[in-house]
Amino acid sequence: MKTKPSHRAWTALDAEIVACERCPRLRQYCLQVAAAKKAAHLSEDYWGRPAPNFGDPRATILIIGLAPAAHGANRTGRLFTGDKSGDYLYRALHAVGLANQPTAVSRDDGLKLIDCAITDVCHCAPPANKPTPTEIANCREWMTRTIDILPVRVFVPLGLIAWQAVVRDLQTRGLITGKQPKFGHAAVAKLADDRHLLGCYHPSQRNTFTGRLTHAMLVDVFRTAKKLASS
Fold this sequence. Notes:
Blueprint: H1 3-18, H2 24-36, E1 54-55, E2 61-65, H3 73-76, H4 84-95, E3 116-120, H5 133-149, E4 154-157, H6 160-172, E5 188-190, E6 196-198, H7 205-210, H8 215-229
Parallel strand pairs: 2-3, 2-4, 4-6
Antiparallel strand pairs: 1-3, 5-6
Helix pairs in contact: 1-5, 4-8
């Protein structure tokens, strides 16, 4: 019985995210990309709206990305779906039992997350993948409400900007006091209520193509996340 209100709140929040119009520059860019398309996807209907959260509404592990890719989630309508970063991420999640399959190509491909959910610092694709501070602030409510809904035990920000956004939220809640924890891959910070913050490099092509982030490194982070979530 306790899961039903959580599921309703999760679904309602997603609907609000998709309807958001707070950032004119981002909304214009997403629609322009959706209209122009990419040569490889000319026959597809692009999503072109804010990408909602994705995953298990009872998740104890919350992954926080930066923003949808212009021809990834802005095309497919699901976070980390239809691009190389998503391929890397979901393959690692599947390897540790947090996803039912290793691939993500569309919203109806059958992918499900297990005790895991994904949100973004910004839910609209930004030009050059760089949201402005104002745009990040405009989107902050969605992260706050996502954290309010989920029974999160472990926060896994992907990259420095996501780490900073999560730390800001946790400081507001009084869960981080004193010196701000420093971002690093596999860095762990224990929160005031015995939950954990776990750093991870973003699975961008810049990181994966150069070997800064390997599949084994990503798998190790999510194995750690599972252990911390059950502790």
